[in-house]
Amino acid sequence: MRTTVGSLLVMLLGAVLEVVPATAVAADAKLVAQGKEVYTAHCVLCHGEKGDGKGLTGIIARYQKHGVVIQLYPRDFTAGMFKFRTTPTGYLPTDADLLKTVTEGILRSGMPSHEDVSLADRKAVIAYIKTFSPRWTEEEPGEPIKIGKVPSYVGTAASVKRGKELYKKVGCFQCHGLSGKGDGPSSATLKDAWGDAILPFDFTSGALKMGSGPVDIYRTFVTGLDGTPMPSYEESLSEKQRWDIVSYCLAVMQQGKPHLAER
Hints:
Blueprint: H1 2-42, H2 44-47, E1 61-65, E2 68-72, H3 95-104, H4 119-129, H5 135-138, H6 157-169, H7 172-176, H8 214-223, H9 239-252
Antiparallel strand pairs: 1-2
Helix pairs in contact: 1-4, 6-9, 8-9
């Protein structure tokens, strides 16, 4: 009797374990199918049918600056590499990271906002985008880096001064230039992960692509911009040093006056 009951329990447990994954797979497949429809309607023109950034749009923009010809292409999803994340360098972004990009768009990049697309469709297209790279089945997204409250000293004259010294000491000027205009000694030689010329950000030109507040700039310092020469300073700089450089960047952007920076 014990054997019979035990066998039944094992069989029932096995049946449950089989049903749950099958249901999950079916749900995922349905979501991906929905995402494909959304992608075809809103994304394929730029990012291409294969998600490799080779859609009919081709080059989004071409311009020359500091003697370098820059060509902007749509994101290649097949590499599974994303610049704008809350996760550590080298890690996949979270769904929340991707949803933010899809929803808000990316300033000055050709990537528009999709706030007019339903939340369900935006989440579905994220599921579909993940099918373009094997990274999504081989790796888990990283844990978002926690950023505390902006310190009270950020934007003060003392912090700006320390930040300016650090900006030079750690070599930020090599790419961004001494005046932050993106014209440093190395700027003309920089390439992205696809081998295309890329220019460092010009802090005097206006808002950054994913936000210009203190937290936005600080996040860039800790996460880095994967696929570009912009590294993470999570290990090489202390938290205070990173905030001081934020102060200097805000000052260069003429947003670093005490008590006026967004907190």
